[in-house]
Design brief:
This protein is α/β, with parallel strands linked by helices. It has a single domain (about 15-455), classed as Alpha-Beta Barrel (TIM Barrel), CATH 3.20.20. It has helices at about 20-25, 40, 60-75, 85-90, 100-115, 130-135, 140-160, 170-180, 195-215, 240-260, 285-290, 340-355, 375-395, 435-455, and strands at about 15-20, 80-85, 120-125, 165-170, 220-225, 230, 295-300, 305-310, 320, 360-365, 400-405, 425, 430-435. It starts with 14 loop residues before the first strand and ends with a helix.
């Protein structure tokens, strides 16, 4: 039996949603003129993805989206965050538009609107057109301009019906996993030389923001940043560990929040970036473009990060990532379950940015849990984390919505289909969708929140 949902108080206008991403669910990798993305390439690299899984078919959402939208309607979602596949719309990333790709998103948007669910597209969730990667990918400044042009194309087509847009998903993770460590596409292991991929994504964000404002009247524009509260172990050695934590915070959080909210980059001298232009990378006027006012800051939260000073002076980075001492529960991915980390993160953002912090949206939060329909662990995770959001709101943070990750089990990047994040179980052999206990729990939470405001 499903326990009664937790009843924190959310305002009537609070938006309840769920998130997905194109490469993780759509499949149809070569259909209707879609060009290859860096993920189509990367998954074919031996050893890149567990068991050689690919997103070629994924959840076959490209063909089954009406069924998925029906599930959203049943859930009572206010909004659905999905991503557009850039190479479906522009097969080589620029120039000629593929009308069949745009038509797909047009139909999806209409289906959502008919179901009373607000379409909330993300323009880039890591599946860069391979042709642009061949020209340097996000290491090349030109990619930022191509991103702005792509934003104008979709803004023009969907802007009459889409109000809320998200430019980038987690530029930190794309920079570090994709270009720094090479464990995600495009699989480049440049370590700290990957920093241009941060600046060019952010420049692309600014250019896309301007393009959306020009083509989609009344657009609300957000960025979705992966943020982590940085914690010290109890046995921390004061000075050195604190310096390590500050350096990590600068790289993971501030590198992506500071420029969009305050128009300046944090101090990255711990990484050898000393002159303000970072060796000519940051050009005059870039920060003004990046800091174009936003309607909201999207936060993707999974867990805190524990940091110490580097264990050896030869270590290439000014910090070590370590395990917490506390025996936290773990998700099947091994990530610690720490709901109060989300409250700390939100309260900390407000303390750091003050009036410069726009309304906050939780654009991703959820967990990988054991396969099966009785996903008690996911219910506990969601109850804890929605409670943590309510707590932050009580402490004065303006949070407007919560999107859980994820609606469906899907292609979990380098883990393939091994980690299950869905409110809905997907059988990848038959494509059968079956709602889990957490689906019912979330539906009841949303219904109960609505009833509170009616009654
Ligand atoms: C990403 C998702 C991913 C999730 C769980 C986020 O970093 O935006 O695409 O599936 O975390 O790992």
């Amino acid at each position: 039996m499903t326990p009664p949902p937790a009843q924190p108080k959310f305002p009537a206008s609070f938006v309840w949603g769920a998130s997905t991403a194109a490469y993780q669910i759509e499949g149809a990798a070569e259909e209707d003129g879609k060009g290859p993305s860096i993920w189509d390439t990367f998954v074919r690299r031996p050893g890149a993805v567990r068991d050689g899984h690919t997103g070629d078919v994924a959840c076959d959402h490209y063909h089954r989206f009406p069924e998925d939208v029906a599930l959203m309607r049943e859930l009572g979602l206010d909004a659905y965050r999905f991503s557009l596949s850039w190479p479906r719309v522009l097969p080589t990333g620029e120039g000629k538009v593929e009308p069949r790709g745009l038509d797909f998103y047009d139909r999806l948007v209409d289906e959502l609107l008919a179901a009373g669910v607000a379409p909330t597209p993300t323009l880039f969730h890591w599946d860069l057109p391979q042709a642009l990667e061949d020209g340097g990918g996000w290491m090349a400044r030109e990619t930022a301009y191509r991103f702005g042009e792509y934003a104008a194309v979709v803004g023009e087509r969907l802007g009459d019906r889409v109000r809320r847009w998200i430019t980038l998903n987690e530029p930190f993770v794309h920079m570090s996993f994709g270009y720094g460590f090479g464990v995600h596409a495009p699989g480049r292991a440049l370590l700290l030389d990957a920093v241009p991929a941060a600046h060019h994504q952010l420049l692309g964000h600014g250019l896309a923001t301007a393009a959306l404002r020009a083509t989609a009247p009344g657009a609300e524009v957000l960025i979705a940043n992966n943020c982590t509260p940085v914690r010290l172990r109890q046995d921390a050695r004061a000075e050195a560990d604190r310096a390590g934590a500050a350096a990590y915070d600068a790289l993971h959080n501030r590198l992506f929040n500071d420029p969009v909210l305050t128009g300046s980059y944090p101090d990255l001298s711990a990484y050898g970036l000393v002159d303000p232009s970072w060796g000519g990378l940051v050009r005059d006027g870039d920060l003004e473009i990046i800091a174009a006012p936003l309607d909201g800051l999207g936060i993707n939260y999974y867990n805190p990060t524990w940091i110490t000073a580097p264990s050896s002076p030869e270590a290439g980075l000014p910090f070590d990532i370590v395990e917490p001492e506390e025996p936290y529960e773990r998700t099947t991915f091994g990530w610690p379950v720490v709901p109060d980390g989300l409250t700390d993160l939100l309260v900390g953002l407000k303390a750091r940015y003050g009036a410069a912090l726009p309304p906050v949206w939780i654009t991703e939060n959820g967990c990988a849990a054991p396969a099966g329909l009785a996903d008690r662990a996911r219910i506990d995770y969601l109850a804890g984390h929605t409670g943590a959001v309510a707590e932050a709101m009580e402490r004065g943070v303006d949070v407007r919505g919560y999107f859980t990750w994820s609606l469906l089990d899907n292609f979990e990047w380098a883990e393939g289909y091994h980690q299950r994040f869905g409110l809905v179980e997907v059988d990848f052999e038959t494509q059968r969708r079956t709602p889990r206990a957490s689906f019912d729990w979330y539906r009841e939470l949303i219904a109960a929140q609505r009833a509170r405001h009616r009654g």
